[in-house]
Amino acid sequence: MVKVFIDGKEGTTGLKIFERFAKRNDIEILQIDEDKRKDADERRRLIDASDFTFLCLPDAAAVESANLCTNPKTVIIDASTAHRTNPEWAYGFPELSPEFRKKITSSKRIAVPGCYASGFIALGYPLVKSGVMPKDYPVVIHAVSGYSGAGKKAIAQYEAEGRNPELDSPRLYALTQSHKHLPEMKIITGLEYEPIFNPYVCDYFQGMTVTVGLHTRLLSKKYTMKDVHEMISAHYDGCNFVKVAPLMGEGVLPEQFIPANTLANTNMMQIFVYGNDERIMLTSRFDNLGKGASGAAVQCLNIAMGIDETVSLI
User: Fold this and answer.
1) Catalytic site residue 115?
2) Where do the DSSP E strands lie in 94-134?
3) Which of the residues 115, 202, 239, 300 is marked catalytic?
4) pTM higher than 0.85, yes or no?
5) Residue ranges of the chain with pLDDT lower than 50?
6) SS3 80
């Protein structure tokens, strides 16, 4: 029986991780008394008693909890932003390459990717790695998310009676181009510069799309939409959770829309390639609470345990 402690179980990600373990008989959840949730000594005791500890905390608290651990056998899986660009931590996106998967398997410290970052990196990493996108390409990212990704306070605002009418419409934010996911977007993909990033929070609960456009005149050589589709399809061939849709055409999206909420409550990610040979568009669609958070965390746990990565995720 594997012992698991969730530090921060009361937050959205922590609750979703806890829910995913409900039907598992190979995991024992170590519970902390409500009145000791902020007691460092009690948290240290539970972290050290666990085989795996999930950190579902703000960044500063996640750093504190990681430093509390004194048991060299405990694996820390951090869902915060704090350690995602730290080379000593495994980056928890195993589909990117065999090297990423191997590091998750062997590391005692695993950083779960950010939700928006997952959507962009799924597109940007193979584009840069293959040489299709130059490392200095002027990337612009457009993204939409359900309000569940904005935290407890925002969820309460969206679900309150008599709420502000502005919440009825999509709201653009991160206006200073300093969103916390930008460093990992740049570093993990290998870009030389941080992208322009335009995220919107919208009036639906969960689900996300992240979109990047390519001007083919700015690429390293002339690529067609078919070339890009073949490259990214080959990159993710055989993956359980990342699937590339057929090249956009008849029957792929009959209504010619890409809704953002269709993968809610799954750990799946879909990638679409569309547009034309002058302006190629790529979109990833997934659940910001699934492959963008708790699902990715549990997938990393399964890999680190050496079991089927799909357990409790399909």
Assistant:
1) yes
2) 109-111
3) 115
4) yes
5) none
6) coil
